[in-house]
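Box S2. Input/output pair 1.
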Amino acid sequence: MLTTIFWKKVWSWVKHYWYFPVIIALILLLFLIRSKAVDKLFELMLKQHESHKKEIDLLKEVSDDRKEKTEKILEGHKEALQEIEKSHEIKIKELEAEKREEVAEVVEEFKDRPDDLAREIAKILSAEYLKKKNKEEE
């Protein structure tokens, strides 16, 4: 049951790999003639196969090297990012400690004047100071 689809596939294969049927036909012809050209054709096919195998191996090696280098770069990037995060956390803690000390100094300085104290703390914390109206002022 050879259908038209089968023959179309065969024709497509022959169009792309035309040299295989030609080489096989030459080998058969030369084998019938008993020439040394058959050995040369076999050698040629073996050399082509070896050349192809070397090229594939080289491509695989290059791909593996690139993958390895990429992984090393990513690992270095992750480590650098972790170091930056750690130093950022340390600086934030230092900044918080400095703000606490500054607030403590301001509280001590303005402990008798609550409005001035609120205003200074708002400045330190980068907040807005809103003066509360007394009920007597209304």
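Box S3. Input/output pair 2.
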Amino acid sequence: MRELTKLFLMLDNNETASSAGGGAANGEEDLFGFSSDSQQPPAHRYNKADLELISSFYSISFNINMLEKSARRFYELNADAFTAFIQAWMSELPIEKEILAFGRNVMAAKDKREAEIAASDRVNDDTRTVLNASGKVQFEIHRMYGLLRFFPGSEGEYIARFAPDSLILPALTGYFTVRFGDTPWVIIDEKRALILSRLRSNSAEEGLPLKTEIQILDGPLAENSGCNSDEWEDLWRHYHKTINNESRNNPDLQRQLMPKRYWKYLPEIKKL
């Protein structure tokens, strides 16, 4: 597996992406060291340390001291480049070589000014590839702030399911922590068999602090986690119909903002 944490460590040596087993197509290993013709479950592509790093980076209490030496120097040199590096990796595109070259180019800068120039130089092929992939991921992260639909679970938590194009689940940590406050929640990435949750450490006791955790599942996902999602979705559709202004319907704009690949998870659309 091509781990994000190890990719950061490679910034400090001359090892190339290809010599380290990185990206190719047609049955060869991709960015994550995952063979395209393998039947291995998607969850096995990921390392929990990488997922926790991303989740912490996007949390409301990110601490730079949790980063390893090379990653910390990279962040201190240019935080935007650090973000682009992570988000390009999250895109799951076979661009490990470009990501590594981009990171080394920024790290070679003499000062923060030079690093800023290197990190934004779209004339450079590697930089342009990384920034385009990063932008794709950032766009989907912000899109999911509005497109996730939550329904109540059996333990008082609110549950949302989705299958994003990129590995964005850990990046939702901070936003939904703020949005839900003391209300427990769970977000499930069905495509990758990953779960991001913020639950009480003991659901039988009230008033205990909420704990954020990301899990990699080996088995199949439960369909409804003990809740009546159909009833909740009917209620949401009724609310949507009540507030909808038919005279302002714009199907083309709706498809642009809510692409069809997401409709499975949108109650107001999937049963129309």
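Caption for Box S3: Residues 210 and 217 are 21 Å apart (CA to CA). The radius of gyration is 20 Å.
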